Automatic annotation (TrEMBL):
Subcellular compartments: Cell membrane
Parent-protein residues present: 492 to 784 of 844
Name this polypeptide is given: Copper-exporting P-type ATPase
Superkingdom to which the source organism belongs: Bacteria
Membership in a protein family: Belongs to the cation transport ATPase (P-type) (TC 3.A.3) family. Type IB subfamily.
Amino acid sequence: ATPMSVMVGVGKAAEAGILIRNGEALQNASKITTMILDKTGTITLGQPKVTDIYRVNSMDENQILQLVASLEIGSEHPLAEAIVESANERGLQTDKVEHFNAIAGQGVEGIVGDKRLFFGNQKLMLEQGISVNKEAQDVSLKMAGEAKTPMFFAIDGDLAAVIAVADPIKEDSISAIKRLQKNGIRVVMLTGDNQATAKAVAQKVGITDFFAEVLPDEKSQKVAELQAQGEIVGMTGDGINDAPALALANVGFAIGTGTDVAIESADITLMRGSLHGLADAISVSKATLRNIK
Ligand code: ADP
Ligand code: MG
């Protein structure tokens, strides 16, 4: 395409809230064969809320939340924000946490008062040698089947609670994904979340291809793998952990409400946050290439 037609295309896209950083991205968008979508904050709103607190021992919900919030106050993860917000809503005060540590892809640990706390996914419990009884296991699977993310809370080596958060799917994600699929694009979901939750969300939005429990640095590896198979890969994400994958993809799309790092690493930013921006960008790209060869 000529520089003039690219300029026109970039302008047209901008009117639709799609910011295209370079002309090359605009031309490549129509060639995408596989579109990878991050789950949290991309397909979903990225505003998880606490929905269930399953108690394992005699502690009450407020005692549990107060401790978990004290631990999570040091984390910037959206799951942590959901916990702290829920504690705030109940008017609970947090205590000081010591030796706080975030374990990538698993959760957090720290000491509050005289208690050693762990909070995160089942892998975290497994690696810490904390046993999850059958009932807690069943409860967590039920939560995950409802597309919620279950998290396990342990005090001094014993499971104390399972807490679920739900992150609503953006209302137009389903139709936006359908549009991409109708364009012949294979849509793949990538998430650090657990297998069962990922499956439930994928099912709700009509995606059959998904990869769960993907560690932050593995996201870009997935892009590379697909490229090695000959796919022209589009990647859409919002988080810090999506940045390397956004940079590596043939075309990286950032959600406008996402992190600065994601936006800086992407070629195209969807200012409106809606995934319809993807099919819109692709159709502007096609029009640009069609008009001037
Ligand atoms: P994602 O944000 O896509 O879920 P992450 O790698 O950040 O990917 O997290 C993977 C999983 O690790 C989360 O789904 C959660 O189960 C657990 N986890 C990570 N950080 C926290 C945290 N601060 N509190 C509780 N669980 C966490
Ligand atoms: Mg995300």
